[in-house]
Amino acid sequence: MSTIDDLLADLPAMLTVKDLAGFLQVGESTLWRMESSGAIPRGQRITERCCRWPRSVIAAWLASKQCAGDSQSCAPEDRTVPSDGHGADGRLEATPIPESREAGA
User: Fold this and answer.
1) What is the pTM of this model?
2) Helix 17-24, helix 28-37: angle, nearest 10
């Protein structure tokens, strides 16, 4: 089993948007949304148009997300749902169907 440091070893010390999005297997727009919502650590703004994430910060963030080996979610205990419908782990939350819209009503 690989450690987080092993997984990140081939990446540069300061990750670009493209580096981090590729590693997390998400699009660059999704990465920016994740940063805005607090789902990932904020990058360091080098200039107005240049942002980098230290590899060590991403490694620590990933380590904090690891499960204890059970089938439960790695998400924080606070399961508040932001206004965009995404949960604390960045995944879209299911919304119950109101009774008036259930089939056969």
Assistant:
1) 0.60
2) 90
